[in-house]
Amino acid sequence: MLKKERHDFIMRQINLHNRVLTSDLVQLLNVSEDTIRRDLQELVDQGRLFKVHGGALSKSYHSSFDDSTVYARDSKIIIAKKATKLIKDGMVVLTGGGTTILEFVKQLPESLQATFFTISPLVAVELAKYNNVEVILIGGLFSKNSQITYGGHVIMQLSEIKADLCLMGTSAIDAIEGLTDTDWEINQLKKAMLAASKKSAVLCISEKLDIALRLKVCPIEHINYLVTELDKGDQLLKSYSLKELQIL
Amino acid sequence: MLKKERHDFIMRQINLHNRVLTSDLVQLLNVSEDTIRRDLQELVDQGRLFKVHGGALSKSYHSSFDDSTVYARDSKIIIAKKATKLIKDGMVVLTGGGTTILEFVKQLPESLQATFFTISPLVAVELAKYNNVEVILIGGLFSKNSQITYGGHVIMQLSEIKADLCLMGTSAIDAIEGLTDTDWEINQLKKAMLAASKKSAVLCISEKLDIALRLKVCPIEHINYLVTELDKGDQLLKSYSLKELQIL
DNA sequence: TATATTATTGCACAAAACCGCAAAAACACG
DNA sequence: CGTGTTTTTGCGGTTTTGTGCAATAATATA
């Protein structure tokens, strides 16, 4: 393999995953560590990536994308990490959109083998960075506000799916009222998502607990897992743990 | 064997495999290394390929995966600006993916009223910033490499659409061979996109001109507009302007 | 802090590129 | 046809580049 080809390959990996490990490249390209290191050094000299201990990082990832502006990011990372435990190799997972879900995707293990259906383009792009994950983006009208696809076409397609697990964020959850929402379209969509999967998990930060909005999505019993940043035994979660709903 | 024959042979190898090794050519053509090197140098001077240590690479190969270094960004902005002239209020537009198309979206007038179908999540997200634009994302399998949806499901949905204009990038275009590609799935997809719209425009930087790859998408006559960063009267475009293809 | 992983450095060897030159072939033209 | 000119090609020697190895230093991780 020519040097230039290796460089292109490395840059493709970087663009795909935002990062790359030296050891992985050694295996994939079947050359010595030294060669990889020199390649990385040259790419650094060309200003095409960042080199760090153990590999290299995408430049754009660090400069352009500012994750820190995401509201309550720390909490969301905790939630995301907990939620990854629900995912096993070979599963078919359906996900919604939103920053929490996005964070969840970023926390998935590199080696995960699974199939993901999603209504969020951003989630799809993030999922695509995993080599062994198949991503199916459910198409339809694209919502400017929530950055997800919605509408009849989406619901129709959801009706043809049966996933093992559905992961969604929520704007409100209450022990008595269950999952609620304000937007009619989103409401319909969530119902369809729940119907399209055997089990379901709700990811939400604690401040969305004990809130009920106008439109009901489903009763609390229909949810199998509730993932928050709080400790399992926290006071705030007491009213939820009574049900056959597992708290993570 | 005459020099011209060797050159043709080399270019055929390049178009076929995207790469060629000096040592292979020495064997295949049964001439000295120096001769091959000189041949390659001449082809470089003609701008027909890239020379690297150990051999040469196709030009399209380098740009087939647009890296985050916003390769040839200036050119793409020029192209994008030209292409926006094709869009009128009320139109239904179908777009592909890629950085050129993305740049095109960014150059659209703020007030535009239109409907966009797209197979690119990133394009969808960008389009969503326009208040008066309706965005429909066509869903399906999500390609890790090209960041677009593809596969049978996408093609099926495309068959139900009739847009006014289809905008796509390309990896190669040639006056005789027409639009060509290397990937079977992408090839099918592009055919479906062209079939789904009344008119079509190809956006590409000049270095993708006069390149023919293995799989044929469509003859040059099926394209209505060709948008490059070059001036309308440029030499390189001469062979294209003969057809009923409008150069922008 | 101890231990394992990763980086760095200098070195050696092979492959490829480069340079100048001369033989061979192709061409031009009286 | 013959002769001078140009182009093309191959050869030998030198220089540059690419790669891997081994010893040592730096850095992570528990």
Automatic annotation (TrEMBL), chains A, B:
SMART domains: DeoRC (SM01134), HTH_DEOR (SM00420)
Keywords associated with the record: DNA-binding, Transcription, Transcription regulation
PROSITE patterns assigned: HTH_DEOR_1 (PS00894), HTH_DEOR_2 (PS51000)
GO molecular function, one term: DNA binding
Domain of life per record: Bacteria
Domain HTH deoR-type: 3-58
InterPro entries, per the entry: Carb_Metab_HTH_regulators, DeoR-like_C, DeoR_HTH, NagB/RpiA_transferase-like, Tscrpt_reg_HTH_DeoR_CS, WH-like_DNA-bd_sf, WH_DNA-bd_sf
Protein name as catalogued: DeoR/GlpR family DNA-binding transcription regulator
